[in-house]
Amino acid sequence: MARGSSASWLPAAAAKMSIGGAGMLCQIPLTLIVVVLSVTAPVLRPGLMSDPTYELGFSLILVLLALCVVVPWNELPRGTVLAIPVLDFVAIALLRTGAMEIQPALGVLAVFPALWLMRSPLPTWAGLACTVGGSLLITAWPLLRSFDPTLLPSYAGVLLLPIVMLCIGAVIHVMSAGAEAREAEIERKDRELNDLLEAAIDRERVLTAILNTVDVGLTAVDAHGNTTLTNRQQELFNRLSSDHHDEPDTLVFGPDRVTPLSPDRRPVHRALTGETFADQLVWVGEGDAQRALSTAARPIKNDDGGIAGALVACSDVTELVEAVTAKDTFISSISHEFHAPLTSVLGYLELVLEDDPPLPPHLRGYVDVAGRNAERVLHLVADLLSTAGDRVRVHPRPVDLSAVIEMSVRSNRLRAQKNGVRLRTDTISPLWTLIDPLRISQVLDNLLSNAIKYSPEGGLVIIRAEETESEISLHVDDRGMGMTEQEAGQVFSRFYRTPAARRADIDGAGLGLAITKSIVESHGGSIHCTSSPGKGSRFTVTLPVNGDVRRAPGAALEGSV
Q: What is the 3-state secondary structure (H, E, C) of 449-492?
């Protein structure tokens, strides 16, 4: 079996050396030991250097070291350098023969050429054969000078060193195989790490390109609020929010564009407290350069569920906010322009109906139709005025909500009977809380009107009220046509009507639920819808509870008079 390169077992620095240079790492220790023995011989071993055989071996060792240094082994045929360890066996044999009487243990120096051969590109069997043959040459050399057949049985001792070198060679082979396997595994893992590093660099490059391409500002922060990642768009927003002294986040304002946003209400702080939100409107900058940003944030959690950081996204919605403001201004202006003449028309129509002599019946019918249509347009104008502002004005006072529900049900019962719809209530009484009764009645009327309008003949509408320590929930359930999840998410938008409602030609302008949502939010509550096509809808209104009113409604009522 072919073996690996002779440099594979060396340290990283030696692995880059030439074949001759790598061989020097085996040749230098051998030469150093022989030189030390020879230099100390006159003192410790007198007569050692006077033996010509020892001197010949010593000289050969020095010549072989010089050859390792001088000869360009890389330019010679592969394997030529292996002549050095083979000749080392000859040199060691000469040294041992010359020092047989003074230093007979020099045969152990055979371990150096044996190590070189076993780590060479030679096949394993060839390396072992050379090692055993060289060791045998070292022990048998003295016998070649004076062979005595009568002492043949005692010559068996010459096999000891070859056997020892054979075992050492086998151990070197096994250890080399393990080292080569580990080296191969290390190289494989190194290649994998390099591949992963290159892939990570490529992904980072792509991610950076994507982040700098999108027109959304992105910021990632650690648990301490320090920025770990941002993109070019967010850097522009950061420059806008810095003042003239480059102090960051000093020009961040609330929705009114003038009130500075407190640090605990800023998106990064909210996200680091574990809050997940979207569509928080903030303004950054000042003067004509001020921009509206819609911010969203989500905390980043570690494996233990703790907050490890947060990701904040900012979108420039200045044009959208200005367009919505312009639309509201336009609607408010037009509604005001319509309101005065419509009121005048209705007033003159009433005068016509009350005039004496009375109108003929057919003319009175015409005037009634004109009056009803004018009132319908006037109600539409009133709805437009209600939705033009951001928030409906409310005047809360202590009220029994169950009584408001019952009154709204009674006012809608006639309409329900005409449509063949049954109304059922499930509330507790009394249900005291702090609300504007007129506005909450408007909410209930809108929800009940829609439930009746979209329910089939024979349908059932259920109104339920539930109370907890912190809130009151109102549920209006119907078994009508229902809508998809996407439609349910848009149903509170102004002028939105579902495709099914338009196909069924059901009356409406798409403003009732928008007004309802505005009224509920003005009370500090919320409203949402769950629906399924063909199975009906549920509208849930959640209102905060006023604890003082609930505990002592009588006192609260008395104080409000």
A: HHHHHCCCCCCEEEEEEEECCCEEEEEEECCCCCCCHHHHHHCC
